[in-house]
Each structure stands twice: as C-alpha cells, then as structure tokens.
C-alpha cells in the first residue's frame, strides 16, 4: 500500500515573495504584465542588465512558477505563468511608494503608461478613462459618472471598484454587439466591474466586459501595442470610432 501523504501546511508566502524582492526581477515581471511573450534579450533591456544576468533572474522566476517559457524554433519566449501573478503585481503596486523620475527614459515610459495601457487585460490610463466616460455619456452604461470618490469605502486608487452601480444598458449591449463583442460579455443583469485608475483618479471599465472590449479593439485595429511594455497606442481608425460613440450611434 502507498504511504498516506502528509497534510499540507500553511502557504510559504516568504518563499514566493523572495522572487519579487529584486527590482530587476520585478521589472521583468512588469514587462510581461500585458500578457505578451518576450525573449530574454528584450527582458534584459527592460531589467537594465546583461543577457547573461537576466538568464539567472529568469531561472529564479521559473523556479518559483511566476513565469513560463515557450520554445518557438530556436528561440525561447517568456510570459507570466498565470493571471494570479498579474494580480500580485497590481496588489504590490498599490502598496509600493512611487519612485522619482530621474531620466528621460523613465519620463517617456511614465508618459506612455499614463496615456494608455493595459491593466488586468483591460484598457486603462487616459484612454481607458475617456472610453468609459464616452460610454456613460452615450447611455451605453448607466449608474454613475465615472468619478473617483475617495470618501466612499471601496473606491480606492489603483484598485478594483467595490461598488455595484454600473450596468450595461440595452442600447449599450446592442451597440457593442455591432462592434463584434461576444454575447456572453454583454450581460445586462449583473453590475459591471470597474477600477479606479491610479494615474487619472477616475474609473475605467474592468471585468469580463472590459477585457472583451479591449480584446476587440485590438482585433479591429483601433488600438495597438506600444513600444513600452503594457502601453497602448490609439490608431487613427480607433480615434474616429471612439469619437463616434453616441446615444444613437454604434459604429462597427
């Protein structure tokens, strides 16, 4: 007979937390936080280390099951191991102090992320807030004004909103269906999730609808990946499409 397995103890938080303790490894993880798979050379650039050094850091991240590697021909690409790792990064970002910007590269990166970025695979930054505001003004979403209200419990910066006021209207569901969003994302019965954007201090759309919308905007060519990891660029086609959002318009 097989020997009975011993019961599992408490989670070893310190063990996995040690992988986040090095700033070079956290830069690698943040570079992968938009869901893309990147080669070691690109990750070395983001971490600010040599290729030989980033290999050691990637080995530690692999050992702690924070990233996984994919072989494509002769090349190896790395991506986050799961959505749970994204969640940990966002949670740590909410607790961490902001570092001063001391270089042009940091300034450029900060500007790109404030303009438009992905957050939990939905659209954030100025663009994410703007799209959410247009949808509210057009009557596609109802239940609030999109403003951050720090006096309300659960409306914390850079955090998933705890309110249940936002809902998709029938008009909004019809308009987004014309954009090609899947029916399962257009549930009018459940409250919509949102996040309080940490750069804009306003709400942007989150949850299943936010993820489906962002994915569809990429497919339509309305937004594209920026050169800075997690950053997003609005295309001329997307600018025209978002400008056309209105009470009686549903531009495909």
From TrEMBL:
SMART domains on file: HTH_ARSR
Pfam families: HTH_20 (PF12840)
InterPro entries per UniProt: ArsR-like_HTH, HTH_ArsR_DNA-bd_dom, HTH_Metal-responsive_Reg, WH-like_DNA-bd_sf, WH_DNA-bd_sf
Domain HTH arsR-type residues, every copy: 5-100
Origin: domain of life: Bacteria
Sequence intervals crossing the membrane: none
Matches recorded under NCBIfam families: HTH_metalloreg
Protein name: Helix-turn-helix transcriptional regulator
